[in-house]
Write a structure and sequence with these properties.
The protein is an alpha+beta fold. Helix content is about 40%, strand content about 20%.
């Protein structure tokens, strides 16, 4: 038999007293309710007392009660009891009504922030109030509507945080370009799309020439300025449909959808030229020699894998390096 642990909180204590009319007047669910008509029934409802950090509701449990907060405050935790609370309940608010109505396991942990007292409406008395009091039913509908709006706002906030974390995990912090993880995913999808549509696709692999000596002779801060300058030039040389990313270290990648080898050659030449002509602001009094890059390019072949396409462009890149740098090969 499944144990309904939430019928009584494990650390709560029964209080041998009845709820007062003054306390009922603070409860939002009883706003507009003729208390004289329900006070005798509510006097039979138990009151629980919770100390700080006592658990009122455990996420995933079966709940058969609605709890109305008479004193103190409660916090709602979605992920775990140790997670930051998503909201807090004050005197007059209630919790547990949704899981009581739909019979589903509870969706959150509810924990006492300080010494609390809650009035407990069991399932029978809850539905008796719904059927007997129009005002109680109306308040309940408003409460559920508000909870729905609050849940939608919470979901929206969670989605925004997820999108932020996704951007952080797929973006190179220094250059603002996407990173290798992002480009590998996008390139794989783009290759499948182009192969399905029988369209060409080309790839550029770019490496900054003698970048190690720049770091060694001028320092890593200057090296960072060079990386950002190269990223800026590449971004200005491509179309909105093209993809660019920092592949690792001083190596970058550009994906050119619907572009044949001749078009890739033109883009590679333009990038190489524009970087050569770029005056890099080092943010210091140091004068850098001209920054140059070597570029290898390749066009996707029939049924070729992403790994093989990248490897061919990388091979062309090292041919450019071996043939004197500041040039393109493909």
């Amino acid at each position: 038999m499944v144990q309904e642990r939430n019928k009584r909180p494990s650390t709560a204590k029964y209080i041998s007293r009845t709820v007062t009319k003054g306390e009922l007047q603070t409860l939002w669910l009883f706003s507009g309710v003729v208390l004289d008509n329900v006070i005798s029934m509510l006097n039979r409802c138990p009151i629980h007392r919770l100390s700080k950090n006592d658990i009122l509701i455990t996420q995933g449990d079966v709940n058969k009660s609605c709890y109305l907060l008479l004193s103190g405050s409660l916090s709602i935790h979605l992920d775990s009891r140790d997670s930051d609370p998503v909201t807090k309940l004050r005197v007059g608010e209630s919790i547990g009504e949704l899981s009581l109505i739909d019979g589903q396991p509870t969706s959150a942990n509810v924990i006492a922030n300080d010494l609390c007292e809650v009035l407990v409406l069991n399932e029978e008395r809850f539905w008796t109030l719904v059927n007997a009091s129009h005002a109680f039913s109306r308040n309940l509908l408003f409460l559920l509507a508000r909870r729905l709006r609050d849940n939608n706002a919470t979901i929206s906030d969670v989605m925004k945080r997820q999108q932020k974390y996704e951007r952080v995990s797929t973006t190179d912090e220094l250059t603002g370009l996407h990173n290798r993880r992002w480009i590998n995913d996008k390139l794989s999808r783009q290759i499948k799309r182009n192969q399905y549509n029988n369209e060409p696709l080309s790839l550029l692999m770019l490496d900054i020439d003698r970048f190690k000596s720049i770091n060694d002779n001028y320092g890593h801060l200057v090296g960072d300025q060079v990386l950002m300058a190269v990223a800026e030039v590449m971004s200005n040389c491509i179309r909105p449909t093209d993809l660019v990313a920092r592949y690792g270290g001083e190596e970058f990648i550009i994906v050119l959808p619907v572009t044949e080898l001749a078009g890739a050659h033109i883009v590679a030449d333009r990038v190489c030229k524009d970087i050569r002509e770029k005056n890099v602001d080092t943010k210091t009094d140091l004068q850098l020699p001209k920054v140059t890059v070597s570029i290898g390019f390749a066009q996707l072949q029939n049924n070729e894998s992403m790994e093989n396409l990248v490897a061919r462009a990388d091979t062309a890149l090292y041919q450019a390096k071996n043939n004197g740098r500041d040039r393109v090969e493909g």
